[in-house]
Design goal:
This protein has about 170 residues and is α+β, with helices and mostly antiparallel strands. It has one domain. Helix content is about 35%, strand content about 35%. Strand 4 (about 110-115) and strand 5 (about 120-125) form a beta hairpin.
Length: about 170
């Protein structure tokens, strides 16, 4: 004979989770969430540090190439102790360009500027210091220090001025 199911009577297996099982599940879920949040936070910090390092590297490379190109193409180059590089292009040009570091936009970040024909033009941001020196053989050494966020690095480049001679 078939038994009729009783209405309102529950078996022990139908009563749900015990308090111990619920607490244990919540504890395991909390541990997993804590570990995953810590992992994602560390990945974000690592990504930010890498981004800042790449930006600092790009800043000094871009500034360095700009200054080296100006030196290479110049007829005369002068560096003074105030940190100003004066470059006079050859040919028919009657002007000189000056490169210097300043914070003209007052954002707390120093920029490399080019003074060209009466206008101060920013070249790149994040350059905190630089030096130029001419060696005995005419080889110019340009050293730039850049800082973006907490990432700081130094870049150094070497170049000679092109010889400008008139050919008959």
């Amino acid at each position: 004979m078939l038994e009729k199911p009783r209405i309102g009577v529950m078996k022990v297996s139908d009563s749900g989770f015990t308090l111990t099982e619920v607490i244990l599940a919540l504890l395991i879920t909390g541990i997993l969430l804590s570990v995953s949040i810590r992992f994602f936070t560390e990945q974000w910090r690592s990504g930010q540090a890498l981004k800042e390092r790449m930006e600092a590297h790009y800043a000094v490379m871009n500034a360095g190439r700009t200054v080296l190109d100006a030196i290479r193409e110049a007829e005369s180059v002068q560096w003074n102790s105030a940190g100003i590089l004066t470059v006079s292009p050859g040919g028919q040009a009657t002007y000189s360009d000056q490169y210097y570091i300043a914070d003209k936009d007052y954002d707390g970040v120093k920029d490399l500027y080019r003074f060209h024909k009466g206008a101060h033009n920013p070249v790149v941001s994040g350059i905190i210091d630089w030096t130029c020196s001419k060696g005995e053989s005419g080889l110019w050494t340009v050293t730039l220090k850049g800082k973006i966020g907490n990432q700081a690095l130094e870049w150094q480049g070497f170049i000679r001025q092109r010889a400008t001679q008139l050919v008959n």
